[in-house]
Amino acid sequence: MQIREATSEDWPAVWPFFHEIVAAGETYPYRLDLGCEEGRELWLQPAPGRTVVAVDEASGEVLGTAKMNPNRQGNGDHVASASYMVAPAHAGRGVGRALCRNSLDWALAEGYRGMQFNAVVETNTHAVALYESLGFDIVGTVPESFRHPEYGYVGLHVRYRPL
């Protein structure tokens, strides 16, 4: 797998799984009916942010994507944040881990002091386990702040890792 900078030409390959993940309503606090152009605006980050795609080197298929950016502006811009989406057909192959490591490497190279995730759905067991394995601590949980289609109101973890 190769991880490279995303371009606008990658969006048609990202949109189908982005849409599927968002419409499922299980892991992202985006509107379930988010349109293609709105999704593109949310996901394709301008500088100082960055968006990447993980691509199968043999086939060129997009396996997943990540966006990374400062978590806050001004006096909070020394902490990075990131979000990840893996095409469901490629789950369990290490794509999410590779994207997360790539974003950590980027944040360190850009001089960020830490990385913070603001809204990790507590029932998203794959993400919870991945972030724990990569050294992200839960610094708080906002109870019942996410409306899960199966489990009802569940918490959102705020996770942090110093760099």
What does this entry look like structurally?
With 163 residues, the protein is an alpha+beta fold. It has one domain: Gcn5-related N-acetyltransferase (GNAT) (Aminopeptidase, 3-Layer(aba) Sandwich), CATH 3.40.630.30. It is 28% helix and 36% strand. The protein has a seven-stranded mixed sheet. The longest helix has 15 residues, at 95-109. The protein is globular. The two termini are 25 Å apart.
Helix and strand arrangement:
Elements: E1 2-5, H1 11-24, H2 36-43, E2 50-55, E3 62-70, E4 79-86, H3 95-109, E5 114-121, H4 125-133, E6 137-148, E7 152-162
| CATH architecture term | 3-Layer(aba) Sandwich
Query: Into which percent range does the helicity of residues fall?
Result: 25-40%
How far do the termini sit from each other?
Answer: 25 Å
Query: In DSSP terms, counting alpha (H) and pi (I) runs of 4 or more, how many helices?
Result: 4
Task: Determine the CATH superfamily.
Answer: Gcn5-related N-acetyltransferase (GNAT)
Query: How many DSSP E strands?
Result: 7
- CATH topology: the name is Aminopeptidase
Main β sheet profile: 7 strands, mixed
Task: Please state the CA-atom Rg, rounded to the nearest Å.
Answer: 15 Å
Q: Which percent range describes the beta-strand content?
A: 35-45%
Shape summary: globular
Q: Order of helices and strands, N to C?
A: EHHEEEHEHEE
